[in-house]
Amino acid sequence: MAxxxxxxxxxxxxxxxxxxxxxxxVDMTPMVDLAFLLLTFFVLTxxxxxxxxMELSLPAEPPPNSPPPPEVKNGVTFLLTKxxxxxxxxGQFNAPxxxxxxxxxxxKETNFSPEGLHALLMEQNQWAVKEIERLxxxxxxxxxxxxxxxxMAVDATADNRAITVLIKTDDQATYRNAIDxxxxxKICSVGKRVLGVDMMPQEFxxxxxxxx
Length: 212
Hints:
Helix content is about 35%, strand content about 20%. The protein is an alpha/beta fold. The strands form three sheets. The protein has a five-stranded mixed β-sheet, covered by helices on one side. It has a two-stranded antiparallel ribbon with strand order 1-4. Strands 2-3 form a two-stranded antiparallel sheet. The protein starts with a strand and ends with a helix. The mean pLDDT is about 85.
């Protein structure tokens, strides 16, 4: 609070009455209390940023003498290696001279450009992308609520018609490339993604032939 101090007054020379001089002193204590109250209020009511997470499917170690895993349907396997290079193949891997007589798998190469990895994922996952776009249009027109839209969008990425992406790396691949790959999968609405699978010997041999 402000206080007014009276410095007194009196008569000057010639009998003239002088005006009283007054000085003010501002008490800052209430203002400091108010500042601390406001600071406490904003700290208690603020929402702190939450760390963002991404769901990953990490395969468990199979038990000894377990049967081979089932064939991956609508699958795309990416092999990451040095120099930011990405090789991939679509569907099940077929070794040369396999008993089923299927054509041997050949690796194709892409890159992290919009015309490379992004375009490839959008093409392979076009069913899920179109389904999510349809659901988003219904959500925008208030046909679907926000919670229903989110649930149905997640179900669409888990549908059998959506692709499954397997990411495999050799000992020369970088951590950054794996993160960039996961980011691109998120952008392209790929919900079924598996990381941490070791390359098969046949895959590794094909990869070594490509990067010679």
